[in-house]
Amino acid sequence: MSDAHLPTAGEAAELSAALALYDTTLRDGTQREGVNLSVEDKLKVARRMDALGVHFIEGGWPGANPKDTEFFRRAAEGELELGHATLTAFGMTRSSRSTVEDDPQIRALVDARTDVICLVGKSWGYHVDEALGVPRATNLAMVAESVAHLVSLGKRVFFDAEHFFDGYARDRDYAVEVVTAAAEAGAEAVVLCDTNGGAMPWDVVDIVRRFVADLPCDVGLHFHDDGGCAVANSMLGIEAGAVHVQGTANGLGERCGNANLFTVMADLQLKRGLELVRPDQLERLTEVSHAVAEICNQATPAIAPYVGHTAFSHKAGLHASALAKAPDMYQHISPEDVGNAQRLVVSELAGRSNIVLKAKEFGLAITDEQAVAVLAEVKRRESVGWTYEAADASFELLLRRTVGLLAPDDEPFQSQHYRVSVGGGRGRPAVGGDADSDGPAEAILSVMVDGQRRLGAGEGNGPVDALDHAFRNAVNGTWPSLDAVHLSDYKVRVLESSHGTDAVTRVLVSSTDGHGTWDTVGVHPNIVEASWLALSDAYTHAILRPRWG
Known about the structure:
Elements: H1 9-18, E1 20-23, H2 39-52, E2 56-60, H3 66-79, E3 86-92, H4 104-111, E4 116-122, H5 125-132, H6 136-152, E5 156-162, H7 164-170, H8 172-184, E6 189-194, H9 201-214, E7 218-223, H10 230-239, E8 244-247, H11 261-271, H12 279-282, H13 285-295, E9 313-314, H14 318-325, E10 343-344, H15 353-361, H16 368-382, H17 392-403, E11 414-421, E12 441-449, E13 452-460, H18 463-475, E14 486-494, E15 505-512, E16 517-524, H19 527-548
Parallel strand pairs: 1-2, 1-8, 2-3, 3-4, 4-5, 5-6, 6-7, 7-8, 9-10
Antiparallel strand pairs: 11-12, 12-13, 14-15, 15-16
Helix pairs in contact: 2-3, 2-13, 6-8, 7-8, 9-10, 16-17, 18-19
């Protein structure tokens, strides 16, 4: 974008202060096929997005399912301390069959104990007639009464006008009535939703501009990407005066996904000149993108703008020669601005900023030479399937080992060998019958502790559980703090699906001691060995982190 199109310093400051980035990954993003987050996962994603500097994090739908209800309970009880974002609860307007005071969904929203609530309501008459099956006037009352009730309780309320763009195109007068009712009832922002994802940019600007002028509240945007225009529509809607934009990490969401909040954020900050987050937060964009993808058991698309693996990659030859002289010849931004790195296909050119930044998070100051050594080791491991975006504990151990802060003699234990036995092979049970148990898995494991060989055996409901018991029996109370440590999540990903059953697998383990949670990773063609590598890092981190502070 040329300088002539950039806002003045005063205009940029004013818009930056007014514009809100609203993350709905934990609610709308989880509608993506294959995404099924545990409560621990949701807490992790929320912390990552908060560190990035978004203004609102929609935690889910309290009352709609036990998992979301537990998430809000744990957040309210102090397990989710947000430094930047405001946690938001999402839910529907009251039912047509109850008063707003007695409606269980409204009560669940209040019980979530968030300062901000986002209510969704029908704004397309067709849906009111066919899906809700209530008179249109009743739907207007449901919207207005729900908003007004929550505002009367001191809540900040956003109103998501579901199917707004389709409703406006096919039943304009009623769509206007709905959003007006929400605004006049006290909604802080009315969010115009493109729920089916088919809105086109040439329509968005005029529609948004009209409501910015007519509504007595802020206007927000919520676009899906079924027409491939979600980010473009979001950007144009902001140009038309909207000051609230919703999206998801990596564009997760139902069908073709939602507007990619990472792309929107980078576009607004680096292209439009708006300082929505601090530069050091924007430098974490790639790291957060990959970490959230790993937690969600997804992969960040290689060609994703700003954060993809190939976003700043170049083939050797003309591009490489030009880049050696002036990096901006073939790149629209400096990749370091978003925590990514310029790459040549035949030889990666990676920066040190991510390594130095992560080291600082661990309270470590490392030299450029050490950062280069760590980066080289990370790249070597990445080439065979390791990844550390969502495994901070394993990365800290790798960093300390590489720079000499964790020498072999300082390791609390050294693994020697193990043997695992798992019964099976009896086939599936008869229809209507009970599963025929083959008995527990058994493991024998040998480790060195303080120069002494320790041997332990254990049983479990699988090889990983058996290994865990065998290790604990081997060390036999050497580190009492391990008694409180247990595995809270376990994910497996096949990295080379074309190799069939001999493919390399990556195992991501989450562990907790009831106070904190840490993540470790293991990679190996043998899934048990990959699991043991992740477990070993988990134990080591649990034992050593009290010394590190």
